[in-house]
Fold this sequence. Notes:
The protein contains ten helices and eleven strands. By secondary structure, the chain is an alpha/beta fold. It has a nine-stranded mixed β-sheet with strand order 3-11-10-4-5-9-6-8-7, sandwiched between helices.
Amino acid sequence: TTPAFAELFDGPPRVPESPLTQREMDLARSVQDACEEIVLRMAATAHRLTGEESLCMAGGVALNAVANGRILRESPFRKLWVQPAAGDAGGALGAALLGEHRWFGAPRPSAGKGDAMRSAYLGPEFTDTETRSALDTFGAKYTQLDEDAVHARTAAEIASGKVVGWFQGKMEFGPRALGGRSILADARNPRMQADINLKIKFREGFRPFAPSVLQERAAEYFDIDADSPYMLIVAPVAESHRLPAATGDSDKWGIQQLNIPRSDIPAVTHLDGSARIQTVNEANGRFYRLLREFERQTGCPVLVNTSFNVRGEPIVCTPADAYKCFMRTSLDCLVVGNFILLREDQPQFIERDEWKSTLRSD
Length: 362
């Protein structure tokens, strides 16, 4: 924010890591409400001017998943598509596409049905040979399994309460981990939100996490009738999975209310009973098959999914990045391709640089 914002609202911004007060929560809520109102008005104007039924959005505000959810529920548009790298990083893609069409005459065919982009898995990937070489450099201890066994073992580890670093295939393009470079956990476990924030991400315990859900089961768990492949829509948790308000709820203040389970998937349910959803289908490859296996073992088709990094650092890209993040945090298990690593099996990890001191607020 600018000095003008501080003058208008009678004080400087909160110092990072300092305790939250009612003022910060009131300001955050008010800014969000204003943003949603503006976005809905812009959507209504776009619909009036064009008469179109489908809306495509980009730009940083298009990453506001709460506003996106309201567009789907309340605007005249029937369909919504948001470019998954909708912030500044996506400007490079926009510039490349503009040049391709304007100067090189590339055709611009209609997408027709579905998502023509098909997935955000546009980054690098690594073979088992490359992965083994990287792990051996650290003296890492690992077990190599076939694909089915990897899914079965990973699902069992998550179901037992473990937090898993999941590194598979091509890296995602954009700010959301979508099952290529993810940290995964059991959404049914009420401890997971605070544990992952404090012990792995090294940030405030109230930060929310998103659910990844099998696309064919999404409507059973959430009030959503659209696909959300890029984790960019917030929708209410279905009433059938909500819990009655806990006794003493009104006695809690602020973020203390986050400790009250509000659904049978509490690790991904916001205070207002909503969740930022990623719908997962066969285009998500091994991540889809892992969710299917987790459902087979537990009956639940939902996992906590957050980006494989710590606060202030980019999402891991290479197997070496994944191992260093694994050893620097309290992750219980690392799955890289067909290799599974358990924390208790690893040799002592010694680094010379004080990497924690370089973490930035995000």
